[in-house]
Design a protein that fits this description.
Elements (H helix, E strand, L loop, with lengths): L1 E2 L8 H15 L21 H10 L6 E5 L8 E7 L2 E7 L5 E5 L14 E3 L3 E2 L6 E2 L5 E3 L17 E3 L1 E4 L2 E4 L8 H5 L2 H5 L7 E11 L3 H8 L6 H4 L1 H4 L8 E4 L3 E7 L3 H5 L9 H10 L4 E7 L3 E6 L2 E11 L2 E11 L7 H28 L16 H14 L4
Parallel strand pairs: 1-10
Antiparallel strand pairs: 2-12, 3-4, 3-6, 4-5, 5-10, 7-8, 8-9, 11-12, 13-19, 14-15, 15-16, 16-17, 17-18, 18-19
Helix pairs in contact: 9-10
The structure holds FE2/S2 (inorganic) cluster and fe (ii) ion.
């Protein structure tokens, strides 16, 4: 195998010119205090060139969640996917060590594997039959005698750095400036006393949205600002006045105490008219705390006692994204029962439907000539501005 390079195809010069233009035109200043800050400009939510720049500067230059380790149980187990517009191949080698490669044959760029997942004992390109072992080293090169200056050793698959946190595997296509653990900090420490080891993967649900990926992330990071207005069911269990947001280097935590079941029954709710929704939410959002972790740029972890779901936001184009929900539940106790799990997933789907609707409406209006940027609520939206700061600094080369 060969070590990866962070060079982009577009060429540095062209990218540099575009970035200069971006800086002059955007007016976005990531260094203002929150009280004076403005959002990124509206064209960043649909511009094709911004979308391409984001692939290189953001998605190819951050830790990206890629898979659960348990998805690759044996030597030769593999899965294929895409990140930052690049085809990725994740495979367990002979020692079951997980490795990530670009899924690109070094001969004429054919994909090594085409199916979404499976098991192989070597990687054989179906185009002209070059073979690679499970560590990416080039082994078989048919009919290549007489080729000069060809180094088999340096013609292996291009490997991508991979790191794990528990069962979760992440890749980094650029130059990682921090280990995965530091990047996620302080989430790993925070999760320790909360028994995440006891969670078991249950189900994946994916949603395709007609909005830029950042619209979805903005919606997630508004500090509960839209809970009462968009999510009447959730509003019944969240103690909105105590909703709190803390930002860290590459992560943020939004958390809220849950209303006790007694106060919910006493009618201490913001939206008492939504009894049916509220009942399902109350029965599945149990415990004392709701915690919503965001990891720059596109991964979220939502946790209630015994219940966790992750949201991976994958850009599919300037105005399209896919949000992949993975649901996990405790192996024991109430959350391990099928009824609880079905009801809990239904609640998440209801909340997601409400979010999707507003995200679509926002995306349409971002094209208006009568909206360019917005302001942030100091009380609520520090995490949203944190996201724009990280994003802006990455795009404007000010990291
Ligand atoms: S492209 Fe793979 S062997 Fe030719
Ligand atoms: Fe929401």
């Amino acid at each position: 195998m060969t070590t990866g390079s962070s060079d982009t195809k577009n060429g540095g010069k062209q990218e540099g010119r575009f970035q200069e233009l971006l800086i002059r035109q955007s007016g976005f200043n990531p260094d203002l205090p929150l009280a004076r800050a403005k959002t990124i400009p509206n064209h960043w939510y649909w511009d094709e060139e911004i979308y391409e720049l984001e692939k290189a500067k953001i998605f190819a230059n951050s830790w990206q969640w890629i898979a659960r380790e348990e998805e690759l149980p044996k030597p030769g187990s593999f899965l294929t996917t895409e990140r930052a517009g690049e085809p990725i191949l994740l495979i367990a080698d002979e020692n079951r060590m997980l490795r990530a490669f670009y899924n690109i044959c070094r001969h004429r760029a054919a994909p090594l594997l085409s199916s979404a997942c499976g098991e192989v004992n070597k990687l054989r390109c179906r185009y002209h039959g070059w073979t690679y072992d499970l560590r990416g080293a080039l082994r078989g090169v048919p009919e290549f005698d007489g080729v000069e200056d060809f180094c088999r050793e340096s013609s292996g698959l291009v490997e991508i750095p991979l790191d794990r946190w528990g069962n979760w595997c992440w890749i980094h296509q650029g130059q990682a400036t921090s280990t995965l653990k530091d990047y996620l900090s302080p989430l790993p420490e925070w999760s320790l006393p909360r028994n995440w080891d006891n969670l078991r993967f249950c189900k994946r649900v994916a949603y395709d949205l007609n909005c830029n990926w950042k619209v979805y992330v903005d919606n997630y990071l508004d500090g509960g600002y839209h809970v009462n207005t968009v999510h009447p069911g959730l509003a019944g269990v969240i103690n909105y006045s105590e909703y709190n947001t803390t930002i860290y280097s590459h992560t943020s935590l939004q958390s809220s105490p849950l209303k006790s079941s007694t106060s919910q029954k006493d009618g201490d709710r913001d939206n008492a008219g939504d009894d049916v929704d509220n009942k399902a939410v109350q029965q599945t959002r149990i415990g004392d705390l709701a915690a919503y972790w965001w990891i720059y740029p596109n991964f979220m972890i939502n946790w209630y006692q015994g219940v966790l779901d992750t949201n991976l936001v994958l850009p599919l184009g300037p105005e399209k994204c896919r949000v992949v929900f993975d649901f996990y539940f405790d192996r024991s106790g109430l959350a391990s029962t099928e009824d609880f799990q079905n009801q809990s997933i239904q609640v998440a789907e209801q909340i997601q439907d409400e979010d999707i609707q507003i995200c679509h409406e926002v995306q349409r209006n971002l094209h208006s000539r009568h909206y360019s940027t917005g302001r942030f609520s100091v009380r609520r939206e520090i995490a949203g501005y944190h996201f724009h700061q990280l994003l802006g600094r990455a795009l404007l080369n000010q990291e």
